[in-house]
Amino acid sequence: MENLTRKIIRSHLVKGEMKAGSPIEIVMDQTLTQDATGTMAYMQLEAMGVDQVKTEKSISYIDHNTLQSGYMNADDHAYLQSVASKHGIYFSKPGNGICHQVHLERFAKPGKTLIGSDSHTPTSSAMGMIAIGAGGLDVAKAMAGIPYRLVMPEVVNVKLTGKLQHGVSAKDIILEVLRIFTVKGGVSKVFEYTGEGLKNLTIYQRATITNMGAELGATTSIFPADEVTKEFLKSQDREEDYVEFKPDEGCTYDYAVEIDLSTLKPMAACPNSPDAVEYIENLAGKKVDQVAIGSCTNSGYEDLMKAAKILEGKTIAPHVSLVVSPGSRQVMMKLVKNGALATFIQAGARILECTCGPCIGMGQSPKSDGVSLRTFNRNFYGRSGTLSAGVYLVSPETAAASAIAGVFCDPTTIAYEDTFEAPMHYVDDSMILAPSTNPEEVEIIRGPNIKPLPQNDAMSDTIDKKVVIKLEDNITTDHIAPAGAKVLPYRSNIEKLSTFVFENNIEHFDEICKANNGGIIVAGENYGQGSSREHAALAPMYLGIKAVIAKSFARIHKANLVNFGIIPCEFENKEDYDKIDFMDDLVIENTYNLSNDPVLTVFNKTKNITFKVITTLSAEDVEILKAGGALNFIRNQQ
Q: What is the pLDDT of residues 379-436, one digit of tens each?
């Protein structure tokens, strides 16, 4: 008897033992990329010499860098469309929707595996599949037919009972899970949802939960494929894709937690972390300046219809700015046809295109010291584009109610119709382009902003570098390689992108690295949490970073560091973190011996002390590091 997670992993396992903590390799059926990470992923695919992708289906989405204030983003889009056409990849045009929602609607399949170059790829696990976020290089490897390497996760059973009350949302379920487990409590775990409470959760509601499971640091989250799944696929004209996938009766889990949905209350994640959870009733009356409804977390049909019902016949408070961004063109058209879009506009909302937009800092930055309520998945410091803003993560119901009141408003305290007509049928894939049937005739378009991939040298047996930055706990990839309209256009230009690394933590980090011929990064717990962006490893590699010594790492970022030849080391004694200062000169010896001994001795020449670090790496990880990264390793095998 097996749980759902183990069933799917077993059916895709090609190497390793399904023992928690052990390295395994699984075959990936599908891949997805988005434009902020896709250019680099496809450049890496080209570097591998792959002619046609080896997956069942691969899709390239344009949803992040759609603000075309210069030529750079448009050039990237032209490259992505041409490379997709040539290499057997489907291409979702700008405006068709956010990758996670469109993939859920049009491509996700029960029992399959998906790897995506975006940390919120687990959204599709709402469909009863194993969907995992990873760095672009791991996605490129999957397209090349190379199995995905990961640590066999533990499986947490989240049993849902009862039914959500009026004004309470699926967003409140995942905020409750974050309250229980925190942003680092899901590392090397899969959260599998079971229980009689599932029957009342739609696919879009389940997707909200699997999407924000990424904030737990989890490998993924998963729901069974049941009658709810079947009905959703039927509405998408994809009933033939349905396969019932459920855990076996009486199967076991590594951990278990039970949540009674009927007891939940509306919640918010307070600045600046998704696990800083507080009840809305305790925030009631606090002034709100901006409200944003959308993102890959909460822009499905039910989400937007509930917000529309609350806004119906009302107008937002005079001092509030409200923006709404549907998650896909399919949902947008349904709102056009049933009049809900007019409701938003009449209430005073500004309608944005079907993209990520404000969630990754592409416009709609709050005012100085402003309070912004967002139905998004992350509220990391600076991510909104305004460092002094207070960003809260809330449900669509809380967002809409608060936009009207002008202050935090508990949606359970107001009357509105929270049921509505079923969506009219609308499926249109005209903005999803199939790859060319004559790929040899396709010319790949490369604009001037697309620079060659930087290459790393093979690893040295001795690393003698200065500590070029010392950081606290929960440093995110937004800290390392910021998002936003100023930075994102340079995702295919690592030389330029490197000038922005750690810009909100220390001035001129790139110049410090150049002056010291690279260096070592020292950090606290959960280093690299958040986005899967491999640029947070690639840009430091370009600047000469050879090792990161941290108390602990986020899963995806640790893998990205290995992929780009940077050694991820953890303090054997976490108290040693306090003995290191900025610009200390550290010497790490015998790195070639990592295959035999995972413990390295570090000598702090500045303070004349030694300490030990641990490298929890597989044998192949060590070989990749020795080669100077995964691309070098793959080239060496050819």
A: 988 898 899 999 999 999 999 999 999 999 999 999 998 888 888 899 999 999 999 9
The rounded distance, in Å, linking the Cα atoms of 162 and 180 is 19
User: CB-based burial of residue 455 (10 Å sphere; 0-12 exposed, 13-18 middle, 19+ buried)?
Assistant: middle
Q: Which residues contact 14 (CB under 8 A, 6 or more apart)?
A: 25, 26, 27, 147
Three state DSSP letters for 263-325: HCCCEEECCCCCCCEEEHHHCCCCECCEEEECCCCCCCHHHHHHHHHHHCCCCCCCCCEEEEC
CA dist., res. 589 & res. 436, Å (int): 51
Q: How many whole angstroms separate alpha carbon 315 and alpha carbon 61? A: 35
Q: Please state the length of the chain.
A: 638
Side-chain-side CA neighbours of residue 513 (13 Å):
24
DSSP letter assigned to residue 406: S
Q: Name the token pair of 30.
A: 């599908």
State both tokens at 424: 């009219």
Strand partners, 324: 293, 351
By C-alpha distance, which of 188, 191, 196 is closest to 152?
188
Which of these, 158, 274, 193, 172, lies nearest to 530 by C-alpha position? 274
For 282-315, the pLDDT digits (tens) are 999 999 999 999 999 999 999 999 999 999 999 9
How far is residue 417 from each of residues 302, 308, 339, measured CA to CA in Å? 12, 10, 16
Q: For the sheet containing 13-16, what is the strand order?
A: 13-16, 23-26, 148-151
Q: For residues 95 and 73, what is the distance between their CA atoms, to the nearest angstrom?
A: 14
